[in-house]
Amino acid sequence: MNPEASLFSVKKASFSAHGKFLLTGEYAVLDNVDALAIPLKLDQRLEIHPRTDELITWTSYNADGSIWFEDSFLISQLTDVRFKGEKEVTKKLVQILRTALKLIEATNFDQGFDALTRLDFDYQSGMGTSSTLISMVAQWLGCDAYALQFECFGGSGYDIACAQADSPVVYNYNDGQPQEVPISYKPSFKDQLYFIYLNQKQNSRDSIASFDPQHLTDENRERLNEMPKKFLETEDDLEAFQEVIGKHEQIIGELIGVEPVKLRLFPDYKGAIKSLGGWGGDFVLVTGDEEAMKYFQEKGYQKMYRWKEVVLDS
Prior knowledge:
Helices cover about 30% and strands about 25% of the residues. By secondary structure, the protein is an alpha+beta fold. The strands form three sheets. Strands 2, 3, 4, 5, 7, 8 and 9 form a seven-stranded mixed beta sheet that branches. Strands 11-12-10-13 form a four-stranded antiparallel beta sheet.
């Protein structure tokens, strides 16, 4: 251990990170398949304010301004491995902070602090509450965000790539040595692209656990690796884009043994529908115009965003 790095001095600071959507390669991205991911204009922000005592307070505000989490504990508890915290979020927060301190070889803070987080999106929406937090803590404490993510949450890390990206990326997990290639992706028909929330949160860890890479055949791997390129090739052709979506949904459906969301929930919808990330919750990408969106509103799906409203670099 580097003795000069044994203490971390707390100073007033602020950080931000982008939310995300995964357009291609869900599940398969865990097994080194290229995936197209997009950062969002919707962020989470972190403010750090030093205290004069040894208390750590953490307050997290949701997009509507309400507090969705708050707790406090002492510095001595943070460094005491027997301390877990009573709240589930506290347990994960303590793990994140301890892991980050370990990664930078720091044993302690030299004083307490107040931490405030604020979201532009609902914390249960699947847009990246955890990944943006990981990114901001990594920025603050100076550790590797991927290493922090993999130790605390697992997963592929594509959401960490999005957190600090300025544009869409083609991402590959690469056996834990992530590769990210920034690209320009601006569909000419973005006025006909909507993100619709399915009114239920999908647990990322459950999605990860449900994926068996043995079901990923060489043929499907090759087809999925081509999907980011297919999305780019069809960014000026809505009809061709919709065909690509249909093929992608079929491949993933066969891979995980789940019926695509359009067939399961919206079989009579005329446009294309694609799951984003873990199937079964969170958001879907839908093609159609404003009038077509009434179809979903009438079925009780009220939370929706236009592509150009939320996608960074759009």
